[in-house]
Amino acid sequence: MDDIDVRMEVAVRTAREAGAILLRFFRDLNGYERKGRVNLVSEADKSAEAFLIRELRHYFPADGVIAEETEQPDWGQSGFVWVIDPLDGTTNFVHCHPHFCVSISLIKDGVPIIGVVYAPIYDELFCGVRGRGAYCNEVPISVSQTTSLYTALIASGFPYNREVDVLAPLLERVQRVLQASHGFRRAGSAALDMCYVAAGRLDAYWEEDVRAWDVAAGVVFVEEAGGRCTDLNGRPCDIFKGKVIASNSHIHDELLALLFDSQ
Ligand code: IPD
Ligand code: CA
Ligand code: CA
């Protein structure tokens, strides 16, 4: 087994185990804390993250770790860095809404090379390695063949910053998408939105204020499934820059133009 195979095997096992930790807390939470007015964190986030970091450090002590609930990034010494969201979809989780997941990615030189996302309620495990394809429950996935925005289903997310000057232009873009497409979805998990683009369940997804752990795994899936990920200007996606548009590739330029050329 090479470096990547070993890391993939551990990432898949730990994602499943972290998913089991989340399930133990689901619908049985003793409250939550606020990182901001609407940015929540619970004991489920913290327990799953502690478990993931402990396991990954045990097997790969020289690898770096960047995790949502841990303030200081650790870039490690091996060149490999794990990027972890122990619970993507915390707001759903806190409200007993079943759409959430664990997301793990391995990056090298800032580029995601492994993605593993596990949605425990659905028992769906997405995984992918750059150059080796993307899978859902071991079945290869590919993006949709939709060639026009007119027949597309598009998703996005809303930022935790709810200032009017941020929300108003965003909602105007949402309106444009609603008018131009089959529909718009805001399901509450960026990582699953990216999985769903890769699996052809959504034709595109964009978001304007995400963190690396929200999208790193998804970039691997979407690109390996035949799709395209860029920033909002059509340049290669940098997971640390906060802006992403992921699509089946066919409608990418049309969506970019609708969202950002027309202002
Ligand atoms: C959030 C979710 C949400 C997205 C936000 C993310 P969290 O992550 O992915 O769908 O719109 O941008 O921060 O806080 O549930 O881990
Ligand atoms: Ca997240
Ligand atoms: Ca999270």
Instruction: Give me the secondary-structure category.
Output: alpha+beta
Question: What is the topology, as strand order, of the major beta sheet?
Answer: 4-3-5-6-7-8-9-10
What proportion of the residues form beta strands (DSSP E)?
25-35%
DSSP helix count? 7
Low-confidence stretches: none
Please tell me what the overall shape is.
Answer: globular
Fraction of helical residues:
25-40%
Total strand segments: 15
Small-molecule binders here are: D-MYO-inositol-1-phosphate, calcium ion
- Helix-strand topology string: HEEHEEEHEEEEEEHEHEHEEH
Overall pLDDT confidence? 96
Blueprint of the fold:
Elements: H1 3-25, E1 33-34, E2 40-41, H2 43-59, E3 63-67, E4 74-76, E5 80-88, H3 90-94, E6 101-108, E7 111-119, E8 124-129, E9 134-136, E10 139-140, E11 153-156, H4 164-180, E12 183-185, H5 190-198, E13 204-207, H6 212-224, E14 228-230, E15 244-247, H7 252-261
The structure holds D-MYO-inositol-1-phosphate (IPD) and calcium ion (CA) (2 copies).
Structural notes for this entry:
This protein is of the alpha+beta class and 263 residues long. The protein has seven helices and 15 strands. It has helices spanning 3-25, 43-59, 90-94, 164-180, 190-198, 212-224, 252-261, and strands at 33-34, 40-41, 63-67, 74-76, 80-88, 101-108, 111-119, 124-129, 134-136, 139-140, 153-156, 183-185, 204-207, 228-230, 244-247. The strands form three sheets. It has an eight-stranded mixed sheet, sandwiched between helices. It has a five-stranded mixed sheet with strand order 12-11-13-15-14, sandwiched between helices. β11 (153-156), α4 (164-180) and β12 form a beta-alpha-beta unit. α5 (190-198) runs parallel beside α6 (212-224). The longest helix has 23 residues, at 3-25. The radius of gyration is 17 Å and the shape is globular. It binds D-MYO-inositol-1-phosphate (IPD) and calcium ion (2 copies). One calcium ion is lined by residues 45, 68, 85, 87-88, 90.
